[in-house]
Fold this sequence. Notes:
Elements: H1 6-11, E1 18-21, E2 36-37, E3 40-52, E4 55-66, E5 70-71, E6 77-79, E7 85-89, E8 93-98, E9 101-103, E10 125-135, E11 144-154, E12 171-172, E13 178-179, E14 185-188, H2 221-236, E15 270-272, E16 280-290, E17 296-315, E18 338-345, E19 353-355, E20 383-405, E21 408-421, E22 430-432, E23 443-444, E24 451-460, H3 472-475, E25 478-487, E26 491-492, H4 503-506, E27 513-515, E28 518-519, E29 552-553, E30 588-589, E31 593-605, E32 611-619, E33 626-627, E34 641-642, H5 644-648, E35 667-670, H6 674-684, E36 702-704, E37 721-723, E38 735-736, E39 741-749
Parallel strand pairs: 15-20, 18-35, 22-27, 34-35
Antiparallel strand pairs: 1-14, 2-5, 3-4, 4-10, 6-9, 7-8, 10-11, 11-16, 12-13, 16-17, 17-20, 18-19, 20-21, 21-23, 21-24, 24-25, 25-31, 26-30, 28-29, 31-32, 32-39, 33-38, 36-37
Amino acid sequence: MVVSGFDSFLKGDVHSSSVVESIDPNTHRNNADRYYRTNEINGYVQDKWQVLTNLSITAGVRYDYHGGMTEKYGDMFNFDPALYNVTGAATTGFTVNNAGFVIAGNNKQNPTAGVSASTLTGRQWGISPRVGFAFSPKAHHGNLVISGGAGLYYDRGELFTYLSQPAGSSIGGPFGVSESAPLVSLANGNSTTGLTLENPMGDLAFATAPQGAYVPPSSNPGVITQALQAQLNQMTGAPASGYYAQYGKNCSGLQAQEGYFLCTTPLNFGVYDKHNVLPYTINYTLNVQWQPTGTVAVSIGFTGNGGRHSVIPIPINEPGIATPSNPIWGETSSYGMEVMNQNEDSGPPDYDYLPIAVEPWATFDAGNTDFRTPYVGFSPNAADFQTVGVSAYDALQTHLEKRLSHHFQVGGSYTWSHSLDEQSDIGLFFTGDNPKKLHDSWASSDFDRKHVFSANFEVDMPNTLREHTFGSYFTNDWHLTGIGILQSGEPWSLYEFYGAVGSINFGNFPTLMNPVLGIKDPSHPKTALTGNSGRFRDSSGNYIPYVDPSQVAINYLAPGTNGIPVSTGHDPSDIYETAFNVGQRNIFRQDAQKRLDLSIRKGFKITEKVRVQYELNAFNVTNTTSPDIPQDQAQIRQNNGCSTTAIASFGGDNNCGSFRSFLGYGQIVTSPNGTDQQDARANLDQIPFANGTGKSARLPLNLNDGQSYCNANVFTANTTQCPNNAANFGSVTGTIGGSRAFTMSVHVVF
């Protein structure tokens, strides 16, 4: 349930609501219950060939079968784009011939012919050859060894978390997996009189066609076809009667200000792509080990791997760019936000703003976004987990060790490495640039550390007194060990997932993505830093940021480009669409981290069979703070926006009042006046305000009149100030690891 603003809460008005039903009325089973099964087969053959007395070669081959997941009752589905068959246009309506869903072949009620129990068609097995060698030149008498190897390594790709959408309209299922249609059904709040706190679902939420759009859950693929038809009818239709009939189509810009709940969320789903194959890595290594003395060893080596077919959550239904020469479902323009003319309204009694002539739609995901998807009726955020990712890792590794002698041992290691990929997380959200262009997100991995140095030592104190004498219990058997680490920080990016990035593609809230927020000079990312640590505030409580918010850059698109329509007559222009920021993923890097741990141990020999050991451990001895990355995201783009003159109009009592609660998501109200249009953009996209730039930058908690978007029309109640949007943006509010700590323990061994 969503309530838009405190004023709506006081009135008892509900913006939207939904609930999920999972009981199949035909089988009476709870379709949210799942019983997953997998089959695994592995085998290998390996042989070692002693070519020479100082050269050996080991070779082998391995077979891996990681069978696709199945469900005991066949309650699994998949989406086959080749079967999707819908005709029509947004303005005239759609006819659904096939929604594109297939049901597992072991489903007893509704199996899809020719579909396996796992629904997968891609190869789920792999043959991986491997070879290695070891060579020791005779001239070095066994003190020098050169070794290396290479091989393929397959792994399972499909996990249960990939069997439904990770975000969007769903219900929690087993192990935290969300569920979606057709096995469960989403009922959206729907009513002829409006949604209220008393009755948030309304009187039509569970009404089937023609009164409503609800379709009960079922494993029958025809049900999802029926549900898709009902959804498209709702998106393109209009109330036949009742109060909301006067405001036009359900997804029109005018209706979005009144019967906003009528434009319901498109159907959402998540699938593991039927064509997926097993992910694998190509590993290779070459090492040289040298022992110049009996207690000293040196090694240097190169290690690397290339990843292929890693799983990435792709928004399969990403809206395209519609133009007159490339129409999509009848749409010949592209807009992820909708511009309203503040000088034109619907008249009494509501005085709702009229959309500009070239932007009539305000779909659930804003603008005409939902009418530009390749599979119309489904959510732009529908997830297709595809094995399309690639990655690379290369490392130079060195190690020097002096083994224990003369009561002393020491070792040190240094690794220079670089890891790159298009996606680093485990597959819940796509993090990067436009997912249609995966290579745009190719950058250092989230976990990449270019430099890692570690050192360790051990000192065994010589025993000075004879065993079992009274003094020996205090002076003998002392040991001191320690380990220190100095390493580079990990890469990070700035993010904004409310429409300040990629609105032309995903509207005002891409739930499946973490789009990268850009800066003014991405070639020199340090120019976006203030030079401050970001860990402190000044005496007035203002944040002293690590990132300078004045360096944030929003990639606005101009009307006439990327399908954005050009306004006509007295309409304002759409200057609010944004694009992705190519090449700005992980351009920042965390500060280096260091740590030293020490341990002192004292042994007591009570008898030949009983020993006692006391330990005192000191962690992070120097109490060095390792800052976490700064706050890297903010809601810069607001749900909607108005020019200051529109807010002031009618004393702030119209739809552009302080809370803008009657405006639909993604609607911007402005006039043809250039100042008003820029003003509306500043109110829509509220970059955190800072006093000063660079090292002198300070982010206040509250803004005064005239600062950023703040003016008398939007003051906080009973004050002359406005809250600063995301005042902690770019500041460090957490640490990695702990502060200095001590532990003591006593061990008895017998």
